Amino acid sequence: MSSHTLTTTADTGHESRFWWMSAVLGILTVAVGVAALVWPEATIRVVGLLFGLNLLVTGLIRAGLCLVVSWYPVLYRVLGVVFGVLSAIVGIICMRNVLASAVLLIVFVAIGWLLDGIIELSSALAGAQDPLRMWRAAAGAVYLLAGVVVLVWPALSLRVFLVVGAVALIVVGIAQAAVSLGLARAARRPAG
């Protein structure tokens, strides 16, 4: 067994102690997506607050995780923290100015999704030994696709945006929950 394998195993154990943060992120993301599907008639303010809150919490949790996960390369961790903070800032902007412009809200949410997609794909590419990298890649691809679709067609009706956004959030939330289950299993495995 090489020293790289030993280091990766030890460091994965460090990350797995924080599985619950990943679970909270997944549950919150699914809940926001379901809420947007169940109440499509909600006002732009409520929708803006829900999506903004999701970006804020997701960004902060992601930045926090990137600070404690030591087995990814430093560059990816730094980018994760930077993009996590940027995502949180976009969330705050969405929550503060939701009535200013529906198109502006849509663009801010799409930028937040693009940032999350970059982070997830970077994590998947950097974690060659990560057994959950396919889930991370799937979540990143969905975030990127949803962000690009919304940016290419910002004039989509709010209802279509809500459905696309809600479905994207549910899929990404499920992927995030799957990551947390893998981390929880890793936390229960005996070292050695």
What's the end-to-end separation, in Å? 12 Å
Q: Tell me the β content.
A: under 5%
- CA-atom Rg in angstroms: 17 Å
Helix content: over 70%
* Structural class by sheet pairing and helices: mainly alpha
Q: What does this protein structure show overall?
A:
InterPro entries: Acid_resist_chaperone_HdeD, DUF308_memb. Pfam families: DUF308. The chain crosses the membrane at residues 18-39, 46-72, 78-95, 102-128, 134-153, 160-184. One of its GO terms (cellular component) is plasma membrane. It is built from seven helices and no strands. By secondary structure, it is mostly helical. Helix 5 (102-126) packs antiparallel against helix 6 (133-152). The protein is globular and about 50 Å long. The model is unreliable at 1-12 (pLDDT under 50).
Name a few traits of the molecule:
7 helices; transmembrane; about 190 residues; about 80% helix; DUF308_memb; disordered N terminus; mainly alpha; Acid_resist_chaperone_HdeD
